TrEMBL record:
Entry keywords, A to Z: Carbohydrate metabolism, Oxidoreductase, Xylose metabolism
EC code: 1.1.1.307
Record-annotated membrane-spanning stretches: none
Protein name: D-xylose reductase [NAD(P)H]
InterPro entries from the UniProt entry: AKR (IPR020471), AKR2B1 (IPR044486), Aldo/ket_reductase_CS (IPR018170), NAD(P)_OxRdtase_dom_sf (IPR036812), NADP_OxRdtase_dom (IPR023210)
Any single Pfam family the record assigns to this protein: Aldo_ket_red
Domain NADP-dependent oxidoreductase: 17-299
Amino acid sequence: MSIKLNSGYDMPLVGFGCWKVSNDTCAEQIYNAIKVGYRLFDGAMDYGNEKEVGQGLKKALDEGLVSREELFITSKLWNNYHDPKNVPIALEKVLKDLGLDYIDLYLIHFPIAFKFVPIEEKYPPGFYCGDGDKFIYEDVPLAETWKALEKLTKTGKVKSIGISNFNGGLVYDLLRGAEIKPAVLQIEHHPYLQQPNLVEYVQSEGIAITAYSSFGPLSFVELDHPKALETPKLFEHKSIQSIADAHKKTPAQVLLRWATQRNIAVIPKSNNPDRLHQNLVVNDFDLTKDQIDEISKLDIGLRFNNPWDWDKIPIFA
């Protein structure tokens, strides 16, 4: 199953997320995911593993397991490259690391412009802005960064462009001056953080939504995120378990189907071959309205990925 993007391309409804995939195992995980049937791979400059993702892609392509046209590869522009003159530099680095001539989707990772850091100085720069652990910002309006992405689509090196971690006000403002409407908005989205108004507005504008961290706190436990450590795991929540039992599915499959049934794409990852397959096969059953309503009651507005925690950046304030 796929979503027809407003750019005219089809994006798979279920993909493989490359966030926190270890460099040591990344190439093999990508290769194995392709063997299982994954075609969408969601990566980013900031993940620091795009070379290894590219190695996994190359192995599968060389063996004829898949053609390039069957794959949907996403990357994200990191905060240090928002200045329009640096956007093409960032893309060339992405393409070189992935070993590809083009990517299918390029997202602005966060609506935040850090000071430019040359690739040869530190890559990926993460929170480094050229002076120890100090956050240094550039005065680059999002509209200017967006126009630079629009130009990339005319080169053939990027098929679709989009945004990530934008709130409704930023989306609304971006649309006022955009020549090309974002094809996708990627957001943190799980039963504890459902953002129904944002989802409704963005979809009404013909923009597809991709959810990350579909399993809620699980994505952040290994980062020792204090909120994640103290929040009940969704896999063990009695409502999720009850719905899973009713459909003879796993809690993970229920959480993913809760999103895809509402036409929201998901990008889970797993090192376990069985779970890798289970996460992909989530569209062969439907939740009832009562079950969807029951999950809706779990919303407590709990956001784990919040730039306010970095340096009091008020994206979601």
